[in-house]
Write a structure and sequence with these properties.
Low-confidence stretches: none
Mean pLDDT: 82
Helix content: over 70%
Distance between the termini: 28 Å
Number of helices: 3
Radius of gyration: 24 Å
Structural class: mainly alpha
Strand content: under 5%
Order of helices and strands: HHH
Length: 127
């Protein structure tokens, strides 16, 4: 609803130039958010795989009874945390990031459909 109404209200109040500025902001911020979501989700997914592979040595604070640093693997607290991160990361990577593209396109199409109306009824130019 916000994606459809924002260009319409901006066009009604500020005309075509206001909508152009809004679309520029939507594109710049939407691309940044989509890239951020996709990269974050991928990083959390890879972190779980990294811990499950057992190749990551823990910091010195994580030591076994003999004082040796141990390898993080399944069953450790780090693995539990990585599973939680993967649960959040999968939707970010697979759905949320790509769906921002649809919101950008929907705003642009709404602006194009109502473009002539915005030019004809710019309320701010009449004040």
């Amino acid at each position: 609803l916000l994606v459809l109404l924002s260009p319409f209200l901006m066009g009604m109040l500020f005309g075509a130039n206001g909508v152009a500025g809004l679309l520029a902001g939507i594109i710049v911020s939407g691309v940044q958010i989509a890239i951020s979501f996709s990269n974050t989700g991928g990083a959390w997914d890879n972190a779980k795989k990294y811990v499950e592979a057992g190749t990551h040595y823990a910091a010195k604070s994580l030591q076994d009874e003999d004082g040796e640093n141990y390898i993080l693997k399944k069953g450790t607290e780090a693995h539990k945390a990585a599973v939680v991160g993967d649960t959040v990361g999968d939707p970010l990577k697979d759905t949320s990031g790509p769906s921002i593209n649809i919101l950008i396109k929907l705003s642009a199409i709404t602006s194009l459909v109502w473009g002539d109306f915005f030019v004809a009824t710019n309320f701010m130019s009449k004040i």
